[in-house]
């Protein structure tokens, strides 16, 4: 499948190769995409102080059939959100502001959990023959791996998958004794949703951490809900991933406590092995 570069990127790419008049048009468009997408050819020409014929030539220079096609592509670019186009005046106040954003996100999401829900999910995990953790993309891939790294310490048979084909293959091997643990901040990943649907057809239990009402949530047997709080300041990584990590920690901690004797013995062995390896003190984090 071919992918056509978006018109904003195309304009930026060829800007220095445009004529002086066309550069005026490009500047007007890049400075205010919303205006350019909604204005008439006359209005754009007036603001750029060029002729309407220049607007037509500019459209063809950026691989658009005509001005109408240009305006349609501009409208599509605007649809991603104004915060990705215009300068944002909303900025966190330095290091402290970033920490405060993370804390607020954690506080807000903590209110969404219930002990009854977690206890029910814990019981299902304890009964599971195996657990598959699914997550794709930059954040959820790491969270799926984190789930594996937390649960194997407690004696669970768990495997993390982020490759879409492998997720489908793994889902095809499950039965009613297995748990599929799906992780998605948006809940809209088609790869995770489809892998969950396949596993569900074969009887596996689907447990998800995602947004309520999302496609993934609708395909889950149990949902640990999270809310994403994306601001207009796009340069700071999403704080929502901390909410997902906290939810994983809650689940893993409750699992460890439920099978305390087994958990303690597994963790003791790991601690003993790592102490011999690192030669560190007794309070080093378990696993570095």
TrEMBL record:
Q: Where is the HTH rpiR-type domain?
A: 5-81
| Stored Pfam families | HTH_6, SIS
Supply the name of the protein: MurR/RpiR family transcriptional regulator
Query: What's one GO MF term for it?
Result: DNA binding
Q: Which keywords appear in this protein's UniProt record, sorted alphabetically?
A: DNA-binding, Transcription, Transcription regulation
Give the SIS domain ranges. Answer: 121-261
Offer one example of a GO biological process linked to this entry.
Answer: carbohydrate derivative metabolic process
Q: Which Gene3D superfamilies match?
A: Glucose-6-phosphate isomerase like protein, domain 1 (3.40.50.10490), Winged helix-like DNA-binding domain superfamily/Winged helix DNA-binding domain (1.10.10.10)
Under the heading InterPro entries, the entry gives: Homeodomain-like_sf (IPR009057), HTH_RpiR (IPR000281), RpiR-like (IPR047640), RpiR-like_SIS (IPR035472), SIS_dom (IPR001347), SIS_dom_sf (IPR046348), WH-like_DNA-bd_sf (IPR036388)
Top-level taxonomic group: Bacteria
């Amino acid at each position: 499948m071919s992918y056509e570069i978006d018109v904003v990127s195309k304009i930026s790419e060829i800007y220095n190769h445009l004529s002086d008049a066309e550069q005026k048009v490009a500047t007007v468009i890049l400075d205010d995409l919303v205006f350019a997408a909604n204005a008439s050819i006359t209005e754009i020409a007036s603001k750029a102080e060029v002729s309407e014929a220049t607007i037509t030539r500019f459209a063809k220079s950026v691989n658009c059939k005509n001005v109408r096609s240009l305006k349609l592509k501009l409208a599509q670019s605007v649809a991603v959100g104004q915060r990705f186009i215009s300068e944002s005046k909303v900025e966190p106040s330095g290091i402290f502001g970033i920490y405060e954003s993370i804390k607020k996100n954690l506080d807000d999401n903590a209110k969404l959990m219930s002990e009854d829900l977690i206890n029910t999910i814990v019981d299902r995990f304890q009964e599971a023959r195996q657990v598959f953790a699914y997550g794709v993309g930059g954040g959820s891939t790491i969270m799926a791996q984190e789930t594996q790294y937390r649960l194997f310490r407690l004696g669970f048979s768990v495997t993390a998958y982020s490759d879409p084909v492998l997720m489908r293959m793994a889902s095809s091997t499950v039965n009613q004794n297995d748990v599929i643990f799906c992780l998605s901040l948006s809940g809209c990943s088609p790869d995770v949703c489809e892998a969950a649907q396949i596993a569900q057809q074969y009887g596996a239990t689907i447990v998800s951490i995602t947004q309520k009402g999302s496609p993934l949530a609708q395909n889950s047997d149990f949902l640990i809900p999270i809310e994403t709080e994306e601001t207009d300041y796009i340069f700071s990584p999403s704080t929502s991933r901390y909410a997902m990590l906290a939810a994983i920690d809650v689940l893993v901690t409750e699992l460890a406590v439920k099978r305390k004797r087994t958990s303690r013995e597994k963790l003791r062995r790991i601690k003993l092995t790592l102490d011999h390896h690192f030669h560190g003190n007794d309070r080093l984090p378990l696993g570095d």
